[in-house]
Write a structure and sequence with these properties.
Strand order of the largest sheet of chain B: 3-4-5-6
Number of strands of chain A: 7
Largest sheet of chain A: 5 strands, mixed
Structural class of chain A: alpha/beta
Radius of gyration of chain B: 19 Å
Order of helices and strands of chain A: HEEHEEEEHE
Oligomer: heterodimer
Chain lengths: 165, 195
Amino acid sequence: MSLTNEIIKTRLVEKFGDLLTEWGEPYGMLSFTAPGDHNLKVMNALNDEFGFSFLTDLTAVHFPDRKGEELAVVYHLHNLVENVRIRFRIYAPVEKPDVYTATGVFSSANWMERETFDFYGVNFVGHPDLKRILNVDEMDYFPLRKEFPLEDQTRIDKDDDMFGR
Amino acid sequence: MARPVRFNIKQKSTTDWGINIAEAPQGFSGEGFFTTSLDKVVGLARKNSIWPLPFATSCCGIEFMATMGSHYDLARFGSERVGFSPRQCDLLMVMGTIAKKMGPVLKQVYLQMAEPRWVLAVGACASSGGIFDTYSVLQGIDQVIPVDVYVPGCPPRPEAIIDGVMKIQELVHNESLRRRNGDKYRLLLESYGIQ
């Protein structure tokens, strides 16, 4: 019998109970929310018991309006045998965005957590080398947080009217 | 109807093969000798033997390839020899978007070039950041290295790049031999943190 979203959801609820919330299936992809300190437990369970052996994506989203849980860290997992994908997220406050690192479970998380730190400032506790990866080292802010404008603020020699600002 | 042949219909002179010879600089000539100022001779020689160093990162680089190709043929202007070592080249042609992380690399390439050196910024991105008004893109390479000629366009046509190279040729031709030793030039480089 193939692994369906219903089976996964039932077994996860059996295991974690009320801890997992915000269940949904947008475009057929099972999604849920886990508590901030449970990300590794959920990931280990999905890896060991459900065969989600591939971390396809790890990123963050900034929701400035969700007070106390502004930063969402999103994990995408893939079961290569059954060809099932799953997604779950955890929330962290923007004042103290500490999240346990997933590098112990998936080595591929190393690169993606550095990228997420680079752009959103999520502090992955236990990451072996958490520093900027894509932006210049001198950058002193996290550019994809909503409070920062997209445009380069350092330029001084251009007329804003001529450049569509 | 036969397609009219538009090319190669003019009878070429068999003596000069249509080759243009550069005009001799102003000077005094007599039987068996010619005198002029060193500036002019050096300028003339440099102008017609510029070695470009292409620093191509995106679509402007494709236009540059067309410029080097047989149809537009930058070799007609003495820039036949494209060098891929900065140490051998005179003209740094920056073509394409330069990300902020690429800035130090570009500066390093510039520093590795020997004097006299010129810089041509090809296209909107190299000149001003272009459409990439964003946190990760350098808003014009003149933030890290001094630029001699800017070529506008997104991307510029090969004709525009050739025009830019000809403007560089003009600068090379008319440059005083003392310019690179002067205080003004030293201050210019110091404003970029060079030397």
